[in-house]
Amino acid sequence: MVSACCCYIVNAGYLFPTLLSALQARRSCTDAVGDVIILCVGPSDSTTDAYRAICDAHGIRFMSVSADVLDGLPISFARFFVHRILERRYKSVLYLDGDTQVCGSLDPLLQVSIPKGRFLAARDPMSIEYQERNTKYEETYLHSIGLPAASARRYFNSGVIRFNLEDWPETSSRVLSVSGDRNHGFRFPDQDPLNIAFGDDYLTMSYKWNFPAFFLNSGFQTLIEPRVYHFMSNPRPWDGPFAPWGRNWFEPYTKLIRQFPQLENLRSGIKPLRYLKYMLQQRYKQLVETPFWGSQPIRKRVLQIEQDAYF
Asked: Does the predicted TM-score (pTM) go above 0.85?
């Protein structure tokens, strides 16, 4: 039996994008190296049954999980409870958010050795803005949640994390303690307490494993050759072919519907006014953000992060 897995934990409302990512992960992960697992929080019903049938037919494990496992916390905290659900035989776990697309082999990431008590995560773009941008927004926020300067410079994203399952109970306990002490008062309720609990005491992952989608505006994909693309803010590519991803990253979701027409009525669309808002918003972001993210200092910063990454 394999001892590694790619793991998603979502509720029924997020199954549509998660299914696409999981199918891609299954194609990108050798059977002998790792399993691909979707943990769906909530009761089974006709919706979850439809997704379960697709997963069963494509080598993906689909498990319905009682909401009780989250101790009354919202779904955003679910990643901190996977150790309660996964079998102990899984030693290496790659957690992925459902708003990702997988475009290259995950085997090396599942097989890399991680020292006891550590985990791999990619630097969040906010940490780059903290150091480089002429604004106090990120600095004020990161300091307001109690991050010292050293940790703010290495503030990481929690959407893709590679960890050893045996370490996760202790990691989760520290995070939930921080969150509880602050009465869950964070803009990013999972990511902020994880950063506070561990500061800069983690191993930096290359952006190839957690590539922020808006980096597409600046051509970083030609430098980094990503394997996991992360669409970490609204709109998402399943909402429409908005900038910067366009049809290249929207089309996989339309293909998913064509392949499994039973999913058509199981996903929610967006209303025309919101569609127009997103279209204008994303064009504006392209015009405003590209000069900053495409600048030479930022390019150097990103390449330095890549050079210094543990893996």
From this structure: yes
